[in-house]
Amino acid sequence: MDGRILADLLDRNDDHVAALSPDSFDRHRDEQRPGVVSVCCSDSRVSQEGMFAVDEPGYLFASGTIGNSVSAVVDGERVLDGSVAYPLGHTHTEVLVVVGHTGCGAVDAALTAARTGEFPSEPGVRADVEALLPIVEDGLSDPRVVGGATDETGGDAAGEYRGDDADPSLRDRLVEHNVHEQVAFARGREEAADATVYGFVYDLHGAYGDRDGAVYLVDADGERDPAALRDLVGEERADHVGTLLGR
């Protein structure tokens, strides 16, 4: 038993308590009405609250899943995950954001499975990777993902795929492809019929730009065209729009 980790957790909680204003929970003790539900990869390097500078309770309903998946299997049917469906249906939340990230290990594992048939040994991890496998296989047949994709942000995403599973540019193009597929799945579910759905990629490898920790809008309710997305966010925030996929 590692008492150092326990002590660190409790000390961090003390810091959290000290940072809260005395009235932080006055509006939220008995109910919540978060403006946004966020589905992000559960990777420890990617802080959902941190990336959007959320330092107050009640703003973000956060769900972390391997590969930022918005779905779950219930009675053999793939449905919208409860952590997404609940806030959309019960807390008046009207915006869903799906956040992938560069260097995603889950996407990498699904790519390995697609190439070799090998899966992680843990049953729960395998199930999550299996859910990503059809998305990755679809991406591997998409010329925008594997064939000479152009990075409109100026990064190097060009070049045909040559069978190198360690190719980070392919992996990150598959990450973006997965975000689009998760957005599309959510938009096709009745629970999200009245929601606005945005897709982002969190960049910690300089794939989209030169700012570690920046999020890049790649999808807005199915709209993927960078010019249209730049018009949507406005000139001041146009540097938050990017794509690694050719058009």
TrEMBL record:
Its cofactor is Zn(2+). Its EC number is 4.2.1.1. This is carbonic anhydrase. Keywords: Lyase, Metal-binding, Zinc. The keyword Nucleotide-binding does not apply. Binds 1 zinc ion per subunit. It catalyses: hydrogencarbonate + H(+) = CO2 + H2O. Belongs to the beta-class carbonic anhydrase family. Residues 143-163 are annotated as: Disordered. Zn(2+) binds at residues 41, 101, 104. It comes from Halorubrum tropicale. One of its GO terms (molecular function) is carbonate dehydratase activity.
